[in-house]
Amino acid sequence: MRTIALALSLAALAALVVTRSPAPAAAQAASAIRLENPWARRAPAQGGHGGANGAAYVTIRNDGVEGDALVAAASDAAARVELHETVKDGDVMKMRRVEAIDLKPGESRVFKPGGEHMMMFDLKQPLKEGDLVKLTLVFEKAGPIEIEGTVEPIAATGPHGMDHQPTSDEKMGGHEHMQHD
Ligand SMILES: [Cu+2]
To answer: Highest mean pLDDT: which of 22-26, 35-39, 87-91, 170-174?
Structure first.
């Protein structure tokens, strides 16, 4: 069953790439996208996406001279992955699905809790802190790019004990961005 589901989702991804990316410039643009600090956590129960779902975050930088767009994502840890944004509806924060996330030349997009994220539906096994989770991000021009993110605690707001998702200008490993009381 899983094999069939995976094959189907891969076929769907391939179809997406083909329909949205007719240009042969893909290979040239492949190195223009930089993915940094990927991580994931189990989704909090509130907000409508609780239970066996997860959320994944990453910093995406487009170093190319052309625009690109994130058009799909997949993970071997989840039945399906959607691109989500968070919008304020009155006093309530709501997540909603987006078809694509555009990346202008030189733009850096910081996915984070309360903002853009990849929603992992129907986790195949619980996300355990310290585990690595594989994600495939599919770009309109750069094509699919695989990354591995660390699993952080459910209350985490950033990767590796950081309190926020770093921008691509920030370096990991230092303590200057950590907050101590
Ligand atoms: Cu979501």
So the answer is: 35-39
pTM for the whole thing? 0.75
Q: Pick from 135, 139, 158, 138: which is nearest to 147 by CA?
A: 135
Query: What is the distance in A from the centroid of ligand 1 to the CA of 67?
Result: 25
Task: Find the 104 Cα to ligand 1 centroid distance in Å.
Answer: 23
Q: Looking at 14-23, 42-51, 85-94, 116-125, which range is the least confident one?
A: 14-23
Give the architecture (CATH level 2) of 2-153.
Answer: Sandwich (2.60)
How many angstroms separate the alpha carbon of residue 181 from the centre of ligand 1?
Answer: 31
Most confident of the following: 44-53, 72-81, 87-96: 72-81
Distance 168 CA to ligand 1 centre (A): 23
H or E, element range at 41: strand 33-42
For 62-89, letters b (16+ CB in 10 Å) and e give bebebebbbbbbbbebbbbbbbbeeeee
Residue 47 CA to ligand 1 center (angstroms) comes to 8
Measure 84 CA to ligand 1 centroid, in angstroms: 5
> What is the Å distance from ligand 1's center to 28 Cα?
32
- Give the per-residue pLDDT at 52: 87
